[in-house]
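Example 5.3 — C2 domain-containing protein
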Amino acid sequence: MSQVTGYHHHSKNHPADQLREIEVLIISAENLKNVSHVTKMKPYALVYVEKYVHVARTHIDEHGGTDPTWNETVKVSFRQKLLENDVMAALNVDIYAHGHLSDKMVGSARILLCDVLKGGKPDEPADNPIQCMTVQVWRPSGRPQGLLNLWVPPTGKFLLRKQSSNLFGKDKQGGEVVNSGVQCMLDV
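Solution (predicted structure tokens):
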């Protein structure tokens, strides 16, 4: 099985390239490296499995600085075949600081999809707990600096919204937020 590298050379409707979409709750980060020395750091996250297929983006946290909170559910698409072909397929979260002239890389985290996607049915509450995992953030230099809190439901989808209205509220941007009773498990 050859791995596809580089940019997509098939048309979007190619049957071999069926896309799968998963939902990821990007909760918060802590103790990030401050890469904005003049003003308060304003971080956002790019979330992807295959960068050339699809990249999702969180809003910018204007106030959290090196301890940002996003509480944002993003949807990430990737080729369905990837899970069958690549045991190292991973969800990547790249954290950037928004700047006036350019955005600076703060760090990145990586979670193997086989560790988080366990199957089950999105509409079964038992298959779909809202929890949290904490993973190490790595600086571009390769040094560990900071932690990222996130959650990927084992089914890849959160409960149907109408059934989970007691779990989700609305934040100012109109996105979903999970109540702060979420416990994080350290997984570094």
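Remark. The chain has two helices and eleven strands.
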